[in-house]
Amino acid sequence: MEPKRDLYQILHVSKDADVAMITAAYKIRQAQLESKPDIESVNELKLVNWAYVTLRDSVTRAQYDMKIQSTATQASPAISYYRDASELAHTGDGKGKYTLLLLLVFGLAAAYLYSNHSNTAKHLVNEGAAVNGLVNNQSKEIDIAKQAEEEQARANAAREQALRQNQDTQKLAAQQREFEAQSRRDAMVEIIRQNQQAQQEQMKKAQDRMIQFQEQQQANRSIAYFACYNAARNAAQEAACARMR
């Protein structure tokens, strides 16, 4: 079985440690235990919180120090003081009377301190229960905060996924629009090319007809010229024959 520890041992500080040392040790122990989610660490954290609440206050610390200094053999110290005082009273010595007075004073003080032990213990138990309740509430608040954080993370993930899907949809729609626009441009270019080709073919046909027309005119002029020439030559011959007669 693990030996019983006092609050100083729980915080890992000496009994003459000041408040600053106690606070520093508490923060170290708290950080160490909060990083471990096991049940032993949770229970140890409750003890650490109780130790810190008790030792950081000078009044509760003094009461606790007196408590741990008392032992079972000192359960009723006033009895021994009264017994010693009774024995000294029979001596009749002046020094004994003075000692008797001191013993009576210390006996009354010891009896008063002993009477306060039970109240101090009850106070520490109640304070420990309050600390345990505080720790339990903190644990519940931590669980609620973690649950809220997880729900927020899930909501953020869902929003990010919806945003990505929306972005993908918009990107796909933009690509589709660009493809359709490019298709229309390509079709327009093809129509213009075909029109230009048709115009060029029509111009070539017109030029061919013009050349044929010019060639036909030239042939007609040649035929007319030769006909006229032959006619003129025949007429000249007839005139010469007539003169010869």
Account of the 3D structure:
Residues 145-216 form a coiled coil. There is one protein chain. The protein is mainly α and 245 residues long. It has a domain at 1-69: Helix Hairpins (Orthogonal Bundle), CATH 1.10.287.110. It is 87% helix and 0% strand. Helix 3 crosses helix 6 and helix 4 (58-69) packs across helix 6 (94-244). The N and C termini lie far apart (177 Å).
Blueprint of the fold:
Layout: H1 7-11, H2 19-34, H3 39-55, H4 58-69, H5 77-89, H6 94-244
Helix pairs in contact: 2-3, 3-6, 4-6, 5-6
CATH architecture of one domain: Orthogonal Bundle
Classify the fold: give the CATH topology of one domain. Answer: Helix Hairpins
Largest sheet features: none
Alpha-carbon distance between the two ends: 177 Å
CATH superfamily of one domain: DnaJ domain
Which shape, going by the Cα principal axes?
rod-shaped
Q: Which percent band covers the strand fraction?
A: under 5%
Q: What Rg is obtained from the alpha carbons, in whole angstroms?
A: 62 Å
> Under the CATH scheme, which class of one domain?
Mainly Alpha
Helix content: over 70%
InterPro entries: DnaJ_domain (IPR001623), J_dom_sf (IPR036869)
Protein name: DnaJ-like protein
Keywords: Coiled coil
Pfam families: DnaJ
In short:
This protein has 245 residues and is mainly α. It has helices at 7-11, 19-34, 39-55, 58-69, 77-89, 94-244. It has a domain at 1-69: Helix Hairpins (Orthogonal Bundle).
